[in-house]
Design a protein that fits this description.
Length: about 300
C-alpha cells in the first residue's frame, strides 16, 4: 500500500499545482483552453497510438479485459437508470441533475489513469490502460449523450450526431490506429514513430495540470447528496464490480490492478462541457468532478493497494 501511495501522490501533487497556477494566475487564463485542446487532439492521441503500436499484444488478455470493463460499465449504467425515479425523489434532483449524476458514475478521467498506471506498472500499465480506453471511452460517450438527449433540458441528439461524435473522437481514433499498426505488423514506423513518442511524453504533465486548473471548489457544496451518491458509485461500486469480474475472468494480478484502477478513476472534465452543452446540471457536474478527484487520492490508493 505504501508503494501505491508513493506512486499516486506525485500525480495528484501535479494536479494541485495546476489548481494553484490557475487560482494564483501565475499562468494566464488564456493558456488553459489551448493546452487542453492540444492535449486532447495531439499529445494524448500520440501517446496512445505509440504505446499500442509497439505493445506485445500476445502477452495481454485484451479480450477478457475489454469485456470486463464494458460489462461493468453497462451494469452500473443500467442500475442507475433503473433507479432514476427513486434517486430523483430521495436526493431531491430534477431530470437535468440526474444526467450529471449519471455521467459521474461511469465516465473516467483517463489522464489520471495513465499517469498512475505508468508510475506503478510502466509501459505495460500504459498498454492495459489504452486497451481499456478503446472500449470504455466510446461506450460511456454513447451512454452519456443518450442520457442527456433523453433527460437534458431542451436537448435532443440524433443517432447520426452521436455516431459522428464517437467516430471523430481523437482518443478512439488513436487507439484504433495503434491497434491497426500493431496487428498489421508495421509497429512504429521510422521517423513517425519517434515523433509520436516525443509528443506522447508531453501529454501527461500538461493534462494533469489542466485537470487541476479545472477544479471548482466553490461547487463542492452544490447538491451534496447527489455528489456523494455519484462519488460512492464511481469510486467504489464500479471498481469493485470490475475486480470481481477480473477474478472470474482469470486475469493476472497486473491486468486486474490496472482494470480496477481504470474503473475507479474520478469523472473526466469533459463531462462538464457535455453537461453545459446538452442541458445537464453543469454546477452539479463541476462539484462531482472536484469531489471525485479529491476523494480518488484515497480510493485509488486503497483499491489498487489491495489488489496488488
Amino acid at each position: 500500500m505504501t508503494d501505491t501511495l508513493a506512486a499516486v501522490l506525485p500525480v495528484f501533487l501535479v494536479i494541485l499545482l495546476g489548481f494553484a497556477l490557475k487560482r494564483r494566475r501565475w499562468v494566464p487564463d488564456a493558456f488553459w483552453g489551448p493546452a487542453e485542446t492540444l492535449t486532447y487532439t495531439v499529445t494524448f492521441p500520440a501517446l496512445l497510438t505509440a504505446n499500442l503500436a509497439k505493445a506485445d499484444m500476445t502477452t495481454v488478455a485484451w479480450g477478457p479485459l475489454m469485456s470486463v470493463q464494458a460489462l461493468a460499465v453497462l451494469a452500473v449504467a443500467g442500475a442507475v437508470v433503473a433507479a432514476r425515479p427513486a434517486l430523483q425523489r430521495r436526493l431531491g434532483m430534477d431530470a437535468s441533475a440526474f444526467t450529471s449524476l449519471f455521467q459521474g458514475t461511469i465516465r473516467p478521467n483517463t489522464y489520471i489513469g495513465l499517469a498512475v498506471a505508468a508510475a506503478l506498472f510502466g509501459e505495460l500499465g500504459v498498454t492495459l490502460t489504452a486497451i481499456s480506453v478503446a472500449v470504455v471511452v466510446p461506450l460511456v460517450n454513447v451512454l452519456a449523450v443518450s442520457c442527456l438527449a433523453r433527460h437534458g433540458d431542451g436537448q435532443s441528439a440524433s443517432a447520426a450526431r452521436v455516431a459522428r461524435g464517437i467516430a471523430t473522437n481523437p482518443l478512439i481514433l488513436a487507439c484504433a490506429l495503434g491497434i491497426i499498426l500493431n496487428a498489421s505488423g508495421v509497429g512504429l514506423p521510422p521517423v513517425i514513430g519517434p515523433m509520436l513518442e516525443i509528443l506522447g511524453r508531453a501529454a501527461l504533465p500538461v493534462a494533469l495540470l489542466a485537470v487541476g486548473a479545472g477544479l471548482s471548489f466553490r461547487h463542492l457544496g452544490h447538491a451534496a447528496a447527489p455528489v456523494a451518491a455519484s462519488t460512492a458509485i464511481k469510486l467504489a461500486v464500479l471498481p469493485l464490480l470490475v475486480w470481481g469480474g477480473s477474478v472470474l475472468a482469470g486475469l493476472d494480478a497486473v491486468t486486474t490492478a490496472v482494470a480496477v484502477l481504470y474503473a475507479g478513476l474520478p469523472c473526466s472534465a469533459s463531462s462538464y462541457v457535455l453537461a453545459r452543452r446538452m442541458g445537464g446540471d453543469a454546477p452539479l457536474m463541476a462539484g462531482i468532478i472536484t469531489a471525485q478527484t479529491l476523494a480518488s487520492v484515497l480510493s485509488i490508493t486503497v483499491l489498487v493497494g489491495l489488489v496488488r
